[in-house]
Design brief:
Layout lengths: L2 H33 L12 H18 L2 H6 L1 H8 L5 H26 L1 H17 L3
Helix pairs in contact: 1-2, 1-6, 4-5, 5-6
Length: 134
């Protein structure tokens, strides 16, 4: 795998994660409008249970559609093709532990700083690191 091909793959996966983050941020302001009888474009106001289903389905769809699950399923093969000094199995375990730690820490950051602040901070940083990857 050439460096250009690897760089394209890394950018694609990271953009998928950025899209997933924005999908999670989407549900917050729009669901409030759908729950309000005056602002909702729907003929009937949705219930809170329906709102949670909408947010969950949309988010799950974008997570699956972003390709991040494919990266996780084929992580060992991807790390084998990367030709690193770290064993592919070890790199896959580190990837899984990193995602697990992120899932534990994320709710605390969202509570402390807010979803909008985190998204507005992380997008420029992701773009900066993707551009400076070479």
């Amino acid at each position: 795998m050439s460096l250009d091909s690897l760089q394209r793959n890394v950018i694609t996966v990271n953009l998928g994660h950025i899209m997933t983050g924005y999908s999670i941020g989407w549900s917050s302001p729009e669901l409030v409008k759908l729950l309000d009888a005056e602002q909702s474009p729907l003929p009937d106001v949705i219930t809170t249970t329906e709102a949670s289903w909408i947010a969950s389905s949309f988010t799950a769809g974008l997570i699956i559609g972003s390709g991040s699950m494919c990266v996780l399923f084929y992580a060992t093969m991807i790390f084998e093709n990367a030709v690193s000094s770290v064993a592919p199995e070890t790199a896959s375990i580190v990837l899984g532990l990193t995602q697990f730690a992120g899932a534990i820490v994320t709710p605390f950051f969202i509570d402390k700083y807010g979803r909008r602040t985190l998204l507005m901070t992380s997008l420029p940083l992701c773009c900066l690191f993707l551009v400076s990857y070479r």
